[in-house]
Amino acid sequence: MNFQIEGGHKLTGTIITKNSKNGAMGVICASLLNQGKTIIKNVPHIEEVNRMVEVLESIGVSIHWQNNDLEIISNEINLKNINKEAAEKTRSIIILIGPLIHHLKKFSLPQSGGCKLGARTVNPHLFALENFGVKISAKAKSYEIVAKDLRPAEFALYESGDTVTENALLTAALIPGKTVIKFASANYMVQDVCFFLENLGVKIDGIGTSTLTVHGIKEIKKDVTYFLGEDPIDSMFFIASAIITNSSLNIKRCPIDFLEIELLKLKKMNFKYKLSQVYKGLNGRINLIDIKTYPSELTALEDKIESHPYPGLNIDNLPFFAIIATQARGQTLIHDWIYEKRAIHYKELDKLGADTILADPHRFYVNGKTELKPAEVICPPALRPAAIILIGMLGAKGTSILRNVYSISRGYEEISERLNSLGAKIKILRD
After folding, report:
1. pLDDT digit string (tens) for 282-323?
2. What is the pLDDT of residues 106-153, one digit of tens each?
């Protein structure tokens, strides 16, 4: 599927932030711990979720969509007929290790796929779960897992990663006793998983910090309904779209705790916006605000822009600053220190008229302000770099073609329809 984008149009109106893609993936995996019925509310209809649903159905999990709600009943699980094609298309498949070790003592999972962002080993998962008595070995096309004598543990993670923290949480939840996870990620999707586990009756201390204490229980058999938190990356997509099209937008239900640093950086770049009072999300835990954006003349920051673990600038929001910087006077340094390949994809912005320098696989310089121009571009095999090319095309006067938009469909629900509702002009083209 391809997009034909007639750029250069102002965006107007109101957009509501969708619920978290990454939160959905973690909570869907966590539902396998529950022998009762789980209903997850407001799940985004995106390709990443679809692939995970296909995997779970292939191993015996009962799943039903009710509009945007997902009903999950974890039956007897059998990996014999696992949908390998679907599994290989999602990085999140690795989060299944934690819940599956409570169903199976020995099993194999296909190697995960997802975004092509450079070296991403499973060592952090191996080193974390071995503390519980789990053995993981990575083969050429699969993960081999053995989990016989599980025990609670206290340990530090090899890296403060989101999925490894989720795997440790899901492992600890059904091991009676106290597990302490240090150097844990406190990111939004991890908090979503923590809130869900608490709904299941698992007590967790330290949510939102880098040390999580999990009070594991023997069994979970409970009918629960859980509301996913809103996605800060979705909010940031529309903030960036407003900046690139020099538009005034109302962006509602933005999770402010995961956008504060981004908004502060933008404020120092002279971005004009207004925030509403804070209110609670439907899960009663997440803090939300509404953002009103205004046309702004941006200036580049003197300091480099880089991501950090929460509460720092979110790793998935960093790419948006690459396209935003094209409209800021001066030179901006984007330091994407985590991934070896993501900054390379930012060079595709040059096709839209950006003036950039890729110093190495991690340092990306943007010279602004430049006038964006239309182009034909094939989507990079990575979600966020693909998204910023789409945003750039919104600001480029003329007709652009963005080909093979599967990367975007992995993480954004009905993105062309939502943008068109604000005044964008995007047509879907099929080969």
Report:
1. 999 999 999 999 999 999 999 999 999 999 999 999 999 999
2. 999 998 754 444 445 688 999 999 999 999 988 888 889 999 899 999
Nearest to 153 by CA among 105, 212, 97, 96: 212
The CATH number of the structural domain formed by 2-18+230-429 is: 3.65.10.10
Q: Where are the alpha helices (DSSP H) in 148-271?
A: 162-173, 188-199, 232-244, 260-268
Q: Of 120, 118, 115, 119, whose CA–CA distance to 381 is shortest? A: 115
Spatial strand order of the sheet with 376-378 comes to 376-378, 398-403, 2-7, 426-429
Alpha-carbon dihedral sign for residues 329, 330, 335, 340: positive
Domains 2-18+230-429 and 21-227 share a fold: yes
How far is 219 from 407, CA to CA, in rounded Å? Answer: 38
The CATH code belonging to domain 21-227 is 3.65.10.10
The answer to whether the CB of 181 falls within 8 A of the CB of 212 is yes
Q: How far apart are CA 266 and CA 301, in angstroms?
A: 9
> Is the pTM for the entire model greater than 0.70?
yes
CA distance 117 to 350: 19
